[in-house]
Amino acid sequence: MNSFFERRYVVAGIFIAFILVLLGRLFYIQVVDDRYVAYASQNVVRKMIQYPARGPILDRNGKVMVQNEPVYDIMVIPKQVTAFDTVEFCKLLSIDRAGYDKRMIKARKYSPYRASVFEKQLTAELYAAFQERLSEFPGFFPQQRPVRTYPDSAAAQFLGYIGEVTDPMIKKSGGYYSPGDYVGITGVERSYEPVLRGQRGVENWMVDSRNVRKGSYANGAFDTSAVAGERLVSSLDMNIQKFGEALMRNKVGSIVAIEPSTGEILCFVSSPTYDPNLLVGKERGNNAAKLYKDPYKPFFTRPVQALYPPGSSFKPLDALIAMQEGMINPQSVYVCPGYYTSGNRRIKCFHGEVHGPVNLTQAIAHSCNGYFDMVFEKLVNKYGARNIDTGYGAWRQNVMKFGLGTRLDLDLPSEGRGLLPKATFYDKLYKKGGWRSSTVISLGIGQGEMLATPLQLANIEAVIANRGYFYKPHLIKSIGDKQVIKHEYTVRNYVGVDSAYFKPAIDGMQQVVDQGTAYGSKIPGIIMCGKTGTAEVKNKNDNSVFVAFAPRDNPKIAIAVVVENSGQGATWAAPIASFIVEKYLTGKISKRSSGIYPEYYMNANLLPPPVLSAADKRQLKLDSLKKTQADSVNKLKLKAASNNKPTDSPRVNKATAMLPKRKDNE
Amino acid sequence: MNNYQQRGFFANVDWVTILLYLALCVIGWFNIHAAVYDENNPSLIDSSTQYGKQFIFIITGLVIGTVILLLESRFLSSLAPAMYVVTVLLLMVVLVAGHKVGGNQAWIDMGGGFRLQPSEFAKFATCLLLARYLSGTNVKVTDPVSFLIAGGIIFLPMLLIKLQPDDGSTLVFCSLIFVLYREGLSPYFLIVGGLLVTLFITSLIFNSWYVVIAIAIVATLIVLSIKRNRPLVFKIIIGAIISMAFVFAVKPLYNKGLKDHQRKRIDVVLGLTQDKKHVGYNQNQSKIAIGSGGLWGKGYLQGTQTKYAFVPEQSTDFIFCTIGEEWGFAGSVVVMGLYLFLLLRIILIAERQRAPFSRIYGYGVASIIFCHVLINIAMAIGLMPVIGIPLPFISYGGSSLWSFTILLFILLKLDSNRMGIIYA
């Protein structure tokens, strides 16, 4: 012991103090601060998402419309790559050396220890060749990935396509999607995305500091397995779908056919169309760009997005509503002098034809404009000519019950609602009280401001076929193995017209096909009731419209066909519709008394001159400015393009395009 | 008087210390096993693995300890100068012909896969010589000449180790200041030392001018409160001025005096850089491993961070990660408690010695163990920059374990003989 004995306490105190500081810090990071627990699991646990197979889509007969097909991505783990014959490797994958280096740099940047995609979506041939020599290329391995494949290359706009998610979609999904995921972008792929995509699984892997898998986390207690997407059975009939697409080849327009007793859509043709397989695989980007540039807009889903004046196909509605409202009865007669006078306007019948005295059935059969203008005027002036707002409003409400001017809630994105203006629209246009029935008289014959989608037109036929009600049209019949049908598709929507009033209108429609405007399209052995329409389009050829249902009793199919800028309804739309109806009902095409046959229509080219967008025009101008020498050539080309109308241009007034015309009245 | 000796060699041995020693060794061995655990090869004793080797080291350590207990105390004291010289020579040899591990030329190859680290043995050799010198008659630490000689004894091996360069072991020699303090060194050395470290750190974190202003304020407050004591006021003013000068010198010193990797390690601890990928990686992973242990830990062999090699050097310098992760805060408290208990026990042993030689040596042992524990754990939990230094008795490695064993057992031998008279 010496004089500094007390200092033992100082030294001990210092030891204790420092040990307490360490313990304090340990307490903080081990007990108080729980960030480190999270960091530790970030270190060790890798959530590996298990992608489910996307659900296939079948047609109504069980035929596959779209399913998955494996393609192979070549993956690489840069750290495992050792020296090998790069020249041979590049040759096998048909890439060049620079491309190889670029890919390797990208992969190494992502991670030297983790696999990343070296080359996407090898074709079967390339993969077979590569597979044989795989052992020569350490560090590379193939990974299977399913892609969509379309055995029939049909119904592109109906099916839609899938693509990588965009950033807004990722945000909207609330974390469900991550970059690189594929989702339905359009069509059924989009509207049924939640059902088709299935349920993702998660495998929690334990990895070491080099990201090498060491086992599963907590013995897989938190793992979930992927559940494959549901199988969808669509309402389409692939036979008539393909047939319809063939008939519409080189034409702009659409075909919509509905089974009236269910609302199931049997045929959904949008023309021009494209091969959905073009949007799969390596060339997807190039193909999509080409399709986007196509002036005929193949991505435009015409059956629900294109708007057409219904024309004469609207006429039966006038009659039905007027009967229900008690404004006319089937015997009411209008003596047609070849026109109708409303106020100081005179609306002529087609080609100035004089129909004489016509009742309802005859008026429909002969498509007498005068009769229906008379009916329409009666309807909108029901509450007096000065109270047209009220009368028009009531008429509009009645028409909307048929599905016009309103969305039918089809199970497809971006459905158009058509156009059926409110009374206030005319108040604005002409000032309140500044318009009369004569002002809007064209609406009575499906012209004027009225616009409808082909789907709406077909739905009206379904209503008439059902004598007063419709089921919501839909494209997917049932979902999954349990064949779930959405409840809303099993409810009848009544249009407010008693079934008794339908007979005279249907009589007229039968006559249209039996001896009227569409007699050329009569199907042997099947009573089809239809109505042609020739809707005027400003500065262009008329749209050929035909709506129908068949058979007359217990109808199986209601159909609307529109062929843009091709002429009269009877010329193009009616024969096409008749072939679809016959093919659907009998499965074959019989010899017609009129002598028409489908191949003629398939081969006809009715494409109107391409409408160049402002951007295209600018580009053309720019090009021509750049290449002054080639200027004249360009002009010639432009001219040639505008002259590139169908060589086959039988736009004459004929009951069908193939036959000489019998009657001029439409 | 010599009744004790007649009852056998181990009769007077401090069994509490031996139990603490064994506990730490066993904890070390289990945690080394966990740190290098391989699920495919789960045997406990396998001489090809680190835990297998450590088992051999522990057994050998016990043999060494027993041999030391059988030695004559007088022998230890008289041999001190020779041992010191041999170690210093070895430290010189290692600089010329040493084996490099991790950038430090600190090892001598002994063949058979075993390597010797002379710097480990320099610790007890220096302690012994220091004890021998300071216990000499007419030697007083307060006397400048004695102080310089004592300082020289510490400084020589320190310099040689610094040249390796082994920063950790170099720092350990600094801890011998506690020995000098206990023997009468002015407390100003401790105070000034602590002050300099504080100033160094604050000057790095804050703008120099703020620190200078802070010093001025603190100095003024102290001066105002003790204005009667003129000489003290004078001292404080001088001290404040020197401190201010030091503050301005810190940054240049820091930038020029330290090597790049050292500077970066310090920056990481002080939060001056956010580098979790490179320089800060080890420490960050170490913190994650320890921090994720929670209160009770993940259980033996269940530590994912250590098992899957996220923490480097996890059986040696970062062995505490395994303890922290698998045994949680509870385990940390046990281990820290054992160390504190051991340190206090050593002080108690030192203070009960009659012979100054034994006491001084005891304080040397305590200082060295304390310094190792402090630096190692502070580094593992991010309170100090990364300095490679083993955790006494726990870290994997024969040299480290044996040198600590020798260090401790010499004290136990001296203690068992405390009633005898030591002839220096």
Output the strand order for the largest sheet of chain B. Answer: 1-2-3
Number of domains of chain B: 3
SSE order of chain B in H/E notation? HHHHEEEHHHHHHHHHHHHH
Shape of chain B: globular
Regions with little confidence, pLDDT below 50 for 5+ residues of chain A = 629-654, 660-666
**Approximate helicity band of chain A:** 25-40%
Largest interface: A-B, 39 and 46 residues
Mean pLDDT of chain A: 83
Q: Which quaternary structure do these chains form?
A: heterodimer
CATH level 3 topology of the domain at 267-275 and 297-603 in chain A: Beta-lactamase
Structural class of chain B: mainly alpha
- Major sheet of chain A: 6 strands, mixed
- Rg of chain B: 23 Å
> Superfamily at the CATH H level of the domain at 267-275 and 297-603 in chain A?
DD-peptidase/beta-lactamase superfamily
pLDDT averaged residue by residue of chain B: 85
Write a structural description.
The complex is a heterodimer of chains A (666) and B (424). Among the domains of chain A are: 40 residues; 316 residues, DD-peptidase/beta-lactamase superfamily (Beta-lactamase), CATH 3.40.710. In chain A, 35% of the residues lie in helices and 18% in strands. Chain A is built from 23 helices and 22 strands. Chain B is mainly alpha-helical and 424 residues long. Chain B has three domains: 124 residues, no CATH class; 110 residues; 68 residues, no CATH class. Helix content of chain B is 68%, strand content 3%. Chain B contains 17 helices and three strands. A three-stranded antiparallel sheet of chain B has the order 1-2-3, covered by helices on one side. At the A-B interface, helix 1 and helix 2 of A face helix 8, helix 13, helix 15 and helix 16 of B.
Question: Short summary of the structure?
Answer:
By secondary structure, chain A is of the alpha+beta class.
